[in-house]
Write the structure tokens for this entry.
Amino acid sequence: MPQFNINRFWLTLKKDITENIKVVINTILISLLIVLVFIIIEIVNSPDSIIDLNKSLRIYYFVVLIILGVVFAGFSFPAFRKTEKAISYLTLPSSTIEKYLSYLLLSSFGFFILFTLMFLLFDYVVIFVFNIYKPEYIQSYFTFEGKIFPTIISVYFNLNALFLLGAVVFKKSPHFKTSIFALSVFLIIFLILSISIYFVNNYSLDLGKSNMFHKSDHLLIPFDNTFPSVVIKHLLQYGLVLFFWFVAYLKLKEKEI
Amino acid sequence: MIQVNNVDFAYKKGKLIFDNLTMKFEPGAIYGLLGKNGSGKTSLMKLISGLRYPKTGNISIDGIDSVGRSPEYLSKYFLIPEEFDFPSITIESFVELYSPFYPGFEYSQFEHYLSEFEVLQNSIITKLSLGQKKKFLLAFGLACNTEVMLMDEPTNGLDIPSKVQFRKILAGLADTNKTFIISTHQIKDIEEIVDHISIIHHGQLRFSSAIDGIIENLVFSEKQEHNESEILYEEKQFGSTRIVGKNIDNQYTPVDLELLFNAVLVNDKKIKEIFDKNKIENHATV
């Protein structure tokens, strides 16, 4: 039974925030600076009439969110990169679940919220300045509308959870090793599925076509708004996230230095 | 009390470091844990602190098992590792963040130890020298007032005045109900402060006795003062020959830890016999 004490958890979280916040904020600021450079290049190089800053900023938001999410998740539990740090981390009198949840909150949810808030502010400033200088081509501010948003969030949490697990498992080069591991697993599953479908259902595999599995139209699950459908849809989107989080916790618990 | 019960331990794919190791550490004593390089001193420290888990057997502090690293277990000890790493924050911030995890932490004690070691309180820890970092960690660890203090080579990196301070502080804490385990190969640094010696060799506890017991059972002297028959070990030192002998006429000589250590490595069975025999005789007298 995991031991959880809210006061101890708060102390652990406070310690982890204090030790990591500078790096997180600095990295986000540098990323936003790079995005600004790209935006300026786009403004300079495109005719005013076709500029769609809102669309560009949305793309940058998603791309940077996912890249930084992966980077920070992979750098979670920095103590495990160095034995001396790991000793002080593991001997700190708080339970594994408290230590784990603290990093989970920081690298998954905390980073997501902080990055989104900083990006919204950045977006506001960029659009505000643009609209002052080019009032004839008014640009709209960032919104979370659109079907793509839930998908991107799902991709973010899946990759973030995968790399969080990698950070616990691999002592050195967690990003590289997690990527290799994930790609290998993906390839194996893909091959198994392809071969199974080919032999069992006599479907043919054609990588050259957009729909790889011929006659596979009926394989798509028709999601509607009924409760079971919604549950299955969310399980498919976030099932792996929960699985990775759980395995990462177990790995942290059995960690030895 | 720390209990190590029938512990087998090996690193992955390696040979057995401990084979059925059993020992205990009582409260109110300063234990000197001695052994050659690679004898398993650091491994034992890691096992006690829960950084490693035994393959079989168990380790507990006051009945709480090390496996699982529960907060109750972790708050019972403070570990001073041989090598350490700190976050890039000031000493004050470190204390603010880490001390609440230790209910017995006393700020006034911490300030006192820090000034004894001459470390400035507003320093950024990562900018301190290795010795100063160690002194800060010692000051913090001692101020945590945990039941058990595990110290792995605590005098490494300390200058001579700091070693003197370290011994003075520890001697002052000797009467408390705490257990200090000092693992070291720098025997001279702890000679005057330990009151129990445990020697580990090839994964086995080869010797364990209180200093009083050692004084009672053994003599440490120059060779000419003793008959050959009483000598358990002898060693040439700067022109003279020092010996460890059986104390047959109740003469009490200061313990020479270096000599004792070498004697145990060479002749531990004979030494054990002497201690066991005296134990039986003492019990019979009682």
